[in-house]
Amino acid sequence: MASFGAPPVSLRHGVRLVAQAASTVEQVLLAVGEQVGHVNISYASRMNKAVVVFLKDQKYVTELIESGLMVNEEYIQVSPLATPSTRITVSGVPPFIPNEALERELKRFEEEPGQAAVLKVTENEPGATANVPGCALCSATKSTGVLTEQRVSMSEEWVHFKIQSSDSSRSTSLASLRNKIRRHETSRAHKIAQELTEKGGQDLVGNLVRAVSETLFAETDSVFRTAYYIAKMNRPFTDHDSLIELQEKNGANMGTSLHSRYSSTKIVEHIAEEMQKKIVHSIVTSSSKLSVLIDEATSISHKSAMIVNLKASVDGATPEFLFLELVELESQRAKDIEGALLNCLDTAGFTEEWLQKNWVSFVSDGASVMLGKNSGVATRLTARYPNLFTWHCMNHRLELAVSDAVDEVQAVNHFKVFLEKIHNLYSQSNTNSRELLEAAQEVGSQVLKIGRVLSTRWVASSFRSVKAVWTSYEALNRHFENAAGDQIRSSKERQTYRGLARRMQSKEFLCDLGLMFDALSELANLSQQLQAHSVTLLRADHLLKRTIRVLASFKYTQGEKLEEALTAQALGHLGSVPLESNAKLTPINAKQFLQSLINNLEKRLSFDGEMLHDLSVLDTGNWPSTPGIRHGEAQVKRLCRRFNLGEEQAVNGMRDFLEHPDSEPESLKPLIRCMQTIPCSTAECERGFSLMNNICTDKRSTLLLSNVSNLMMISINGPPVTLFEPRKYVTTWLRSHRSATQARRQCTPQMPEYKHIWKAL
């Protein structure tokens, strides 16, 4: 592993570790880094079945040697790379030369590496044990290292000072030693030792290790980026091997390992887990306020699942929605849902103490198991977290309000039944759909997909169906008339289409369609605005009141489409469709329907409760014309006590806000961020379930929910593929997994059946 820009190091900065054969260089480096600090590692490489590591300071070498190292639960002895000689011999030294002069001369060989140091101690020197010479330079390097050449190695005799003379006489012995010294000085092994020592300052080892390390990481990065693409683009894991092969064909270096779909699954799992850890760590360390949104559904594999989303501020920014996990439910009882939710939060890293201080709201749909007054999930949570604010999704409440209005106005049910009949007519027959397109071409009209109206879907879906009928009005009428006169059809079918045509040509139905278009258009607009990521409770209250005012205005001034319908009624036709009254039809009473909508919206979506009233002081639109300097002070204090915020800081911020309403005071931001953290809708959960259904299709129904959750984590929270940086995930992966460059068992790929036509293509 290279540290670019590091100063040159010597052999004294190196240590040698002999680990198990299964232990990789990366695992050894991670263990060394945990002991002396990752930033203190300069270079590393595998040499002769050992791992050599160069550190930035010699004190870390001493520390490692004294303590040893644990790698994969195995204790490893650490030895220095440069072992100092314990015996230095000097030959031919006259007795009158003092030891101090010898020491000065010996130090010269430390300061000027690269010179031959073949020395011997005389027999009459104190401490001399043997009259045996050797090579200090070869002893320091010990091996040819990265400059290894074939049939060239360091001599054990020169390295360990074991050179013996060939004769007992002094003159012959000295001549023999001089000859050996001369041959050794000109040998290739000694020159390599000189070259290694001289180039130690040029960082030769570091450059080689940098290149090896970068290759190792680059190839593993490429594999990780491929697996990330599969998760982000919702591709099956079986595409992994094919994508690897494609990139190799295009010249990319993808290594030899981590190419299977099993590896892809594990890599996606690792990335998702690391992403979750980083998200939770960012929220916890910044003490951001937290909102939790949950919803339950059944996957295509018939498994009951709960999606858990968060809304929190990351690094002080505006709060945003974050996917946390898809949890499999053993049962759909409130007790089990509560237990699964708390276990999910605890496993992710949110401690009980932290949740008591920072969990501010819980949002779900209106199912009794969620918001039941006696034993619902919300009730059980507020018993455990007294300051927790529970909220019923406003989009679900809007749907309930519209459903109540439909039940109150009987004529609306007739309209709903007729549109259901049109939906079934075209959704269950491809022939009818094709004939409708042909009819649209005849009248030059456009055809939109007609769905269900005023069903369990949200209001925007009902509006799209009404809009489709209005847009395809002429095409529908032409198709009904053509089918009514088609002699191939049975008399019963022709009579059915004749009745549908009469209904389409009635003035009453056209006015009902125009009224529903205008009303549902406003409600759909409200529904879509409530689903926005940035909408707050105060903004939602403002949007609701504005929609109610618009609906009230329709009672006295017709909407755009109803006005068009009334004009067509007076003319007696709408485009090519003739219009006539049908006494059998009971038209919708516009004022009654609109008033029913208004009443139910106020009943279902009204903002009651002390906390919601307190939050309104942050909305300048609710201030009096000349607010006092202490306006809203009591409300701000109550909010701060409830959400564990600083009262004094918030009160001062509120006073600054009153004096300068155009700017957001810094001291009031914690309270404002807390208010922005509370979501008004569970639309994000619904989007998550839509993504889950896109992932877990009929062909992928055997996917484990844990794998679906990992794919959703990357798809929802992960950056685009072009911005994804795999290196940090690769680093944590290598602590316990192999890299893409490690050898693997070679598998013979299954080749498709050969076709002779390929030669011609």
Instruction: Give the helix/strand class.
Output: alpha+beta
Q: From the alpha-carbon coordinates, what is the Rg to the nearest angstrom?
A: 40 Å
Biggest sheet strand order reads: 9-8-7-10-11
Determine the strand fraction and express it as a percent band: 5-15%
Q: State the low-pLDDT regions, or none.
A: 1-6, 108-130
Question: What does this molecule look like?
Answer:
By secondary structure, the chain is of the alpha+beta class. Strands 9-8-7-10-11 form a five-stranded mixed β-sheet, with helices on both faces. The chain has a four-stranded antiparallel β-sheet with strand order 2-3-1-6. The chain has a two-stranded antiparallel sheet with strand order 4-5. β8 (304-312) and β9 form a beta hairpin.
List the helices and strands and how they pair.
Elements: E1 14-17, H1 25-36, E2 41-47, E3 50-55, H2 58-67, E4 69-71, E5 74-76, E6 78-80, H3 99-111, H4 136-141, H5 156-159, H6 170-185, H7 188-198, H8 204-232, H9 239-249, H10 261-285, E7 290-298, E8 304-312, E9 320-328, H11 334-348, H12 352-358, E10 359-364, H13 368-371, H14 377-384, E11 389-392, H15 394-408, H16 410-427, H17 430-443, H18 459-471, H19 473-484, H20 491-504, H21 507-530, H22 537-554, H23 560-571, E12 573-574, E13 577-578, H24 590-605, H25 610-615, H26 633-643, H27 647-659, H28 669-677, H29 683-695, H30 705-717, H31 727-733
Parallel strand pairs: 7-10, 10-11
Antiparallel strand pairs: 1-3, 1-6, 2-3, 4-5, 7-8, 8-9, 12-13
